[in-house]
Amino acid sequence: MKYNYSKALVELRSKLNISQHRLADLLNVSYPSVSRWENGHFNPTKIVKIRLDKLLQDNEIETK
Q: Which of 45, 49, 51, 52 gets the highest tally of CB atoms within 10 A of its CB?
């Protein structure tokens, strides 16, 4: 099943009340990467997906 990381990222940032810059810091990636993911232009790398999935699970956010 393909996850909708774009939607999940927006929801996560909204729930945590953080900026794309802050999320980028939490994931140890660049701000433009987060922006591209949210806009659906690219998907996170496998390593970042693992980190991101942990954040999403901890905050009970659905990625489907």
A: 52
